[in-house]
Design brief:
Helix content is 41%, strand content 19%. The protein is of the alpha+beta class. Mean pLDDT is 89; it is low at 382-390.
Length: 390
């Protein structure tokens, strides 16, 4: 290999591009295309995500300055008008399909911070809202004078990977989106944790019927009947009880007994009541499972701060969803690289390094030996780093 390709080229080679082209062909998304194919659109949008570009003009100007580089990427044009048209008309679902195809490569990751003695898959369900200007995005109704979209997410806490994302208008209730989760696709014995916004008894019972565990906060106005008390030995656990519902409607939705854990959080000086259908795990483990739910909040915070999902390159629904799906694809690429190479830095360190070196002819393997401290020296070099196969 006489010359190392750019980092952006190497990122693309990690994608299942054959399957992506199948999705493109099925939707006839490249029909009437003259210069900018869907693959080219994907290349430019990945470039924009990795480098944090805010506008089509900024993308076009940045790439035109490096015309020899984008030519080697296989791009025939970087005109903002052409990209704007592609973002508006190319169906976003081809990028959604690419996300889930790439997700298959990410199965089995385990670099999360939660540590438990069991091997069950551990998921958090929650949503985050991305505010939009209603006058520019009239399709995204939320409130009278506001627009928004919601990202409803099934997040694997162990792997730190979103395994399901449902995007809706901001006004859609969390529980409505949660009911769309195909529970049969989750492994038997999976654990799901969520806040009180998902505390719908029929939804909880659907999880129970699939022989999966749920851990949630009990509603303050829930009418319950204590049936049995279990011994309490663990620090912070105030009560461990078997309970049943009292009201007829609640019993109809959830006709079996539940477990109620009353737990005192000394750090925040707050008492919580958790309900679960699991009578095997210790009471402290149940409390820790709910505490791990905070990981999805950190994920939402991270993608909002470090991916381009708050400012958009187009105002149509298709353009917005396309950009978000490409952002999620980029997140999976970062996670895959970090896991497979055992990169010692943080995910943010990795984004900074890739941002600075994206169009350099550097081996990705060599690149990951850099740190934020050594990066300035590497970027100042006239000659590229020694190439190596990825």
């Amino acid at each position: 290999m006489s010359e190392t390709t750019t980092i952006l080229n190497q990122l693309q080679h990690l994608l299942p591009l054959d399957e992506f082209q199948t999705f493109v062909n099925a939707r006839k998304a490249d029909r009437y295309t003259k210069k900018l194919s869907c693959k080219d659109q994907l290349t430019i949008l990945l470039y924009a995500q990795a480098t944090g570009k805010n506008s089509l003009r900024e993308i076009e100007t940045s790439l035109r300055i490096q015309d020899s580089t984008w030519y080697h990427l296989g791009l025939e044009t970087v005109a903002r008008s052409t990209l704007a048209s592609a973002n508006e008309k190319r169906p976003y679902c081809i990028y959604e399909s690419l996300f889930y195809e790439l997700l298959k490569k990410c199965k089995g990751f385990s670099f999360g911070t939660a540590s438990f003695s069991f091997e069950n898959d551990l998921y958090a369900i929650d949503s985050t809202t991305i505010n939009l200007c209603l006058s520019l995005f009239p399709w995204a109704h939320f409130r009278t004078a506001k627009g928004a979209i919601k990202l409803h997410t099934l997040f694997n806490i162990r792997s730190q990977i979103p395994e399901l994302i449902v995007m809706t208008e901001g006004k859609e209730a969390d529980i409505t989106a949660a009911r769309k989760i195909d529970l049969e696709k989750l492994a038997m014995g999976s654990i799901l944790t969520f806040d009180r916004g998902y505390n719908d008894y029929a939804f909880l019972y659907s999880i129970h019927r699939e022989k999966q565990t749920f851990v949630a906060r009990l509603k303050d106005d829930a009418h319950i009947l204590p049936l049995e008390s279990f011994p309490v030995t663990e620090k912070g656990v105030l009560k461990d009880q078997r309970i049943g519902f009292v009201l007829e409607e609640a019993l109809k939705d959830y006709p079996e007994d539940l477990r109620l854990i009353t737990y005192y959080d000394e750090v925040h000086d707050k008492t919580y009541r958790f309900i679960t259908n699991n009578f095997v795990f210790s009471a402290k483990t149940i409390a820790d499972i709910y505490k791990a739910r905070w990981q999805i909040e950190l994920f939402f915070k991270w993608i909002k701060q470090h991916l381009k999902i708050k400012t958009f390159l187009g105002t149509s629904k298709n353009a917005v969803l396309t950009q978000i799906w490409v952002a999620m694809i980029y997140y999976l690429l970062l996670a895959w690289i970090k896991f497979q190479t055992k990169f010692k830095g943080s995910l943010l360190d990795l984004t900074w390094i890739i941002k600075e070196m994206l169009l350099r002819h550097v081996s990705l393997i060599n690149l990951l030996n850099l740190t934020p401290k050594t990066l300035p020296t590497a970027t100042a070099r006239e000659a590229p780093l020694q190439p190596a196969f990825l």
